[in-house]
Each structure stands twice: as C-alpha cells, then as structure tokens.
C-alpha cells in the first residue's frame, strides 16, 4: 500500500506543480495589468487637470523661491527653488528657459511676452508642448508672474532634441507627400484668422490664441494629413486622400466646429473671425507653391465676400473689400437713410425679480457689414464716425425716453474709447438727455488696446471727467481673464460681464465652472455691482446667481427686442427662487 501511494504521488506532482505555476503566472499578469491601468488612469487624470487649467508660477529670483498652483485648485499651493523649477522642463529646453527668465528681469533687455517650450509630466517624464506667458514682471524686486498653458494634443516628437515642430509638418513634408501621391487626389485648406476690426485685420493673432487654434485642429491629423504654420495668422491643412467635395466639406465643417467652439468658450467670437480657402489638387498637378498661394489668396478673399469658405474655381475673379467703391458709400447710406434698428434687453435684479435697467444694442439693417463693430471701424476710415455716433445716440436716447416710464431705470449704452473726442459734446446737445440715468459702457478689450499708446493715468483722468459730467461708467468684459491694471478696475461703477464663454448647457464643464467662480471672485473685491450678461443657458445662470451675483441679463431670461419688454414672470420667479436657495 505504501508503495502504491508513493507511485501515485510521483506520477501526479508534475501536473500539480504546473497548475500552481499557471495560476501564479495568471495572478502576476492580472496584477501587472491593474497596476499599469491604475498608473495610466492616474496619469490621464493628472494630465487632464493640467490641460484644462492654467498653472500660475510666481518666481522670486532674488530669494530663489518659486510658488506655483493650478487655477482650478488654488488651495493646493506648492513651493520649490528656481533650480527645481527649471527641472520641470526637459534638459534640452532648460538653457532656453534660463535665458528667457534672465532677459525678463534684465532692465536693459526686451524679452518676448510668450515662449513656446516643452514641459514634462513629473512621474512619467513624458513631454508636452506648452506656452509660457510673462503676465507681470517687477524688475526691482526680481519677481516674475508666469502663466503656463499646456497644449493637450500637441505632443513633442519622441526622442527629439528640439521642440520647434511638436508633431507639426514642414513645407518639405508637404512637398514629399505631394510628390509621392500617385493620383492628383486631395485638397489643401488655409484657415485664416483675423481680428474683426477693419483697423486690425492685418494685426498678428495673439501667439497663445493661435496655438490653441492649432491645438483644436491637431486631432484631425490622421492618415495622410499635414498641418503647417503658414504665418502668424494662417494654418494650412493638407489632405492627400479626399477625392470628392461632399467628404471634403464634411471634414472642413468639422474643423470649423472646433475652431468656433474655442472662440465661443473663450469670449472671442466677437473679436476674431475664421475664414478658409480651399484648393483641390486636381487643378494644379503637384504644383505645391501654386496650390498654397491660391489657398491663401482665397482665404483672404473670403473676408471681402463675407463667405466662410471659398473653393478654387477656374477664372474666378478676386474681389477686394477695401477697393470696392460700393462699400465706401455704404456708411453714408446707412446714416442718411437711417438704416439702423435699436434693441433693448432688460437687466434683472435677482432678489427682487425687478428690472433695473436695459442694455442697448444698435444694429445696421440690410448692409454689407458683418456687425455694428465692423460698421464703426469702417466709419473711422471714412471720417464718418462722429456722424454715425450722433445718429445712434439721438435715436437710442429718444426711444428709451419714449418707452421707459420709470426715470430710475438705467440705460447701459456701449461706447468706444476713441469716441471720447466727441461723446460728451454729442450727448449734451440731445434734448432731455439729463432725464436719462445713463451708464456709458466701455469694453475691456478696447481699453486694453489703448494702453500701449496712452498713459494709464490719462485713461483714469478721462473716466473721472465723464463721471464729473453726471454720467456713470461701466466696463464690459468678454473674457474669463482680467486684462487691465488693478487701478483701472476701481474707477468703474459697474462691471458687465459677458458669460458667453460659458457655452450652452452641455458645454459647461468643470473648467468653465472654475473660470466663472474665479472671475466673480476677482471682481467682488472692488465692491461694485456686477451684471452677468449674455448667459447662454440656465445651468450657467443658476451657478452665477448662487455665486452671489445680484444682476443678470441674457436671451435665456428675455431677449433683445425693439421694445423695452419686461422679464416673463415665470423666468423672474425662477431666478428669485434660485437666489433664496
């Protein structure tokens, strides 16, 4: 019996050992899989946090101290030395960063405000393209305030010793792609970005904004597609596969959706325009320079024809906006024939559910101009700006007095800084203007554009002189980031914040919510009334009311209309109830 048991164990133990080994191997594989997945998830969450927020760095070069935090988690403030700060960048980038920082604090140097560089994730050491912005530099104390913007998709080439391309293509890549393309298939698209003001159409786009445009298009680079920086205002996209217009049109419209989404969420829709010129390669067999030149020309032409995109067609004649005489007489026709309409939108006090005033918006009817701002820009070029201002001011004040039975209601009237030359004189000549409780609204972007040419103290003196004449002044903000020196904000009586960048119900993510809270907190310290304007959805409106804002206005509450309409009772009640919560 003993011999039999010994024999059975000796024949079964290899099978048992193999089973144990197999189970151990499976356990090891599963453990490794979950560890890798957890690390990957941690990395993705960390990266998503960085890419959806702005990181602030305060460099005290004299004390060798760096303070930094994400704007989405201001309570999580960390500190390190200058050496540790430089270690956040790849080795081949550190010399460039050191030189830039030294140039910023050198009083005899003029350093660029923006710097393109790579940053690396702390744990994985993976590198990502970013933009650094020098927001404020105090050369006496050696303190520099930096903002770091991480580009989510633009990944630095693996193992590269340079960070100039970040995965983007070069003209040599385009030429090689065209040369190797057996059939003359494909299209080339040039996206051109311009400021909407006619006086600024040739101005270079802010480098940070331009890189965000690049970032928006980067996910479309699949297969045989190339993306190139043509100029500081142009991005070129080449596709060597598309061979019919329906497919091309779907692709181009998808690109526009992403570009316009960025503009909308960041309050730039009223400031920057996007146009496209498209050339099908079948027209110019492998002639790269001709293809690109034609696409760029068409993108520029799209601004004069008011078309979003223009396709190349044989024998197409180019139209030039500024040289067309019909546009030159358009301003005078609008003024003389009074081709303008005047709309009003109520401003509601949430606690009382009462209308306290009206925002006004003039619009030109049936004309060649894209917007009222476009019309005003062109009026400056033709020396008709004073006549246009006079016409709009008289009509607006007259209609407001005719429809407003309550003299206590405010009229929020949009003005430009350059209109100060004749603004007060024009208002003084309007009958019964003193019966109107008027708030003159200046745009933050407009004031910011004047500061390089005008001393800040002069701007403050101008604002005070307006108030001395009996008017109140407001500041209209279109961005989540404050752009002006702190002293200027204290001068204004009202802040009117366009929260269009918050998007619609579905678009309002955690980053937008953080920006809403951050902007409100920055403005509350000035102890001035804040009006939340252009709110696009109830979730954003509810969030703003709960954040402590008392005054709200938006089409979701009551839209602009030629009549000074009250707020619908059910909307007023909903806002009042939210304020109580």
* Order of strands across the main sheet: 12-13-14-15-16-17-18-19
Q: How many runs of DSSP E, i.e. beta strands?
A: 19
Distance between the termini: 85 Å
Specify the number of helices.
18
User: What's the helical proportion of residues?
Assistant: 40-55%
Uncertain segments of ≥5 residues (pLDDT<50)?
A: 1-7, 42-52, 159-164, 317-324
Structural class: alpha/beta
Radius of gyration: 30 Å
- Beta-strand share of residues: 15-25%
Mean pLDDT: 79
- Please tell me what the overall shape is: globular
Major beta-sheet overview: 8 strands, mixed, barrel
Describe this structure in words.
By secondary structure, the protein is of the alpha/beta class. The protein contains 18 helices and 19 strands. It has an 8-stranded mixed barrel, surrounded by 5 helices. Strands 3-2-1-6-5-4 form a 6-stranded antiparallel β-sheet. Strands 8-9-7-10-11 form a 5-stranded mixed β-sheet, sandwiched between helices. Helix 7 (288-305) links the parallel strand 10 and strand 11. Helix 5 packs across helix 6 (245-265). The chain is globular. Mean pLDDT is 79; it is low at 1-7, 42-52, 159-164 and 317-324.
